[in-house]
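Protocol step 4 of 6: structure prediction from sequence.
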Amino acid sequence: METRTLHRPESEHDACGVGFVADLRGRRSRDLVEDALLVLQRLAHRGAVGADPDTGDGAGILLELPHALLGAELAACHKVLPAEGRYALAMLFLDGDQTIAAVRRIVEARGFDVLHTRNVPVNAEAAGKQARRCAPRAVQLLLVPRDRAHVGRQLFVARRAIEKAGAAYVCSMSTRTVVYKGLLKPDQLRGYYADLESLEMRSGFAIVHQRFSTNTSSTWRRAQPFRHLAHNGEINTLQGNLNRMGAREPQMAAPWLDPDTITPVLDGSDSDSANLDRALELLLHTGRSLPHAAAMLLPEAWEGSRTLSAAQRSFWAWHAAVMEPWDGPACAVFTDGLRVGAALDRNGLRPARWTLTRSGRVLLASEAGVLDLPGRAIRRRGRLGPGQQLLIDPTRGRLLLDQQIKG
């Protein structure tokens, strides 16, 4: 008699596809962008489709600002692009009756001049039928700050003002990075956004993500990457994280802080990944380094460890009183626009495999085989263990692994 095993949904362990490609010395190239787009395409099986087989759960890429592309466009308009770091690029999604005029009024009131408004060139036919029905209008604003001190914080507050006013969804707003994403499948992303096909689109690193929706429905804005992070997994402690962050907000204070504008920091109607990104963003703007902020959110299992130094144990004990763990099976890749890194949750239930090539290219992804690399091209490779971190620091041309960071 034939025995058949019943399918049980709880036995499924699929999740999003996530990864990054980075140059160890931060050298920008078109080849790196092509590699990142190929990695994304090879993570397509990590996503899903619905009734419309051409509409996926969402895909996206985070890159350094395309200075050459923007400079050429401004030159054609008889404008001059400021030097790197002296301008910011906002990538916006506008729906329905939202207008760019409303966004302009907010950013101008927050200390920015609008140098240029750019309708992002898209090919709507590259998206699926359902995705086209709800597709937002993608617009970019080139912003010049009137005061160049702490521009990142100014942008953070201005972005929250835009969101609270309901003027637009801000995919990214930075002097360093830009996000292209949408309710697209990985092989549709570059066809939808013409910028991604441009030879002038060059970057020293790229973060990519293929979404597999589990706890929220798929929309254009819920596609990843977000502004600093892309995430594979689930945050099982999310409700507690939301409650505790809300309880802290009345005590939040800093000279640059506008509590009425930036609170609530988290959004209970958004996905767990989006809220993790918001928490990381806040910690970065308080002056903490990228690996410091990531360690606070995704700590290692330190309480019973016998290998930690006294200083490391003190670090974890102090921060346990400041920030509760965002716990669950999770792999996060993240950037502050200069450095790029990854961290695994303390249970180690998501894969994160990395490779360093002899040419100085670093690849990390949620699985192996996303790039064709001959054995002779590989210098080192490995994978992150529970609670471990990896960081690429192009200012020093180094790949740093866990204890090299935490020590």
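Step 5 (inspection) to follow. Confidence is low (pLDDT under 50) at residues 1-14.
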